[in-house]
Amino acid sequence: MTKNKFCIEYMMNTASQPIIWEAISTPLGLQSWLAEEVTAEEKIYTFRWSEDEVKQAELTHSRNGSFVRFHWLEDEDPKSYFEFRINQNELTGDYTLLVTDFAENAEEEEELRELWDFEVNILQRNCGI
């Protein structure tokens, strides 16, 4: 089944780009807002939310200071991924975080949007926003 791509943009205000980059691109940074524990070995990241909830993702693409893209290893759709991208507004200097993900249907997309809203809210608080 083909999944549908969706994007959500979050205002990060004037939080510095290095702080946001650290939070989205390193195991320790991801652990501060996305999962209870995040480890990485080579390009395989392990996300642990509880003893029973553990998922692995491969880091498939990244550009230093700009974006990271992961693919869940258990996902059978080779074209799906989740991505964190930092953008800066040239006029205001404010940063935004663009989260891209994939969902099988509208109900799953709504659930994922709510989950990303919750998780990014933690990230924003950690960045002082």
As for the CATH topology, it is Alpha-D-Glucose-1,6-Bisphosphate, Chain A, domain 4
Content of β-strand: 35-45%
Figure out the total of helices.
3
Please bin the fraction of helical residues.
25-40%
CATH class: Alpha Beta
State the gist of this model.
This protein has three helices and seven strands; from the N terminus they run E-H-H-E-E-E-E-E-E-H. It has 129 residues and is of the alpha+beta class.
Characterise this structure.
This protein is an alpha+beta fold. The protein has one domain (4-126): Alpha-D-Glucose-1,6-Bisphosphate, Chain A, domain 4 (2-Layer Sandwich). Helices cover 27% and strands 40% of the residues. The protein is built from 3 helices and 7 strands. The chain has helices spanning 17-25, 27-31, 106-126, and strands at 4-13, 37-41, 44-48, 54-63, 67-72, 82-88, 95-103. The protein has a 7-stranded antiparallel sheet. Strand 3 (44-48) and strand 4 (54-63) form a beta hairpin. The chain is globular, with a radius of gyration of 14 Å. The relative contact order is 0.24. The mean pLDDT is 94.
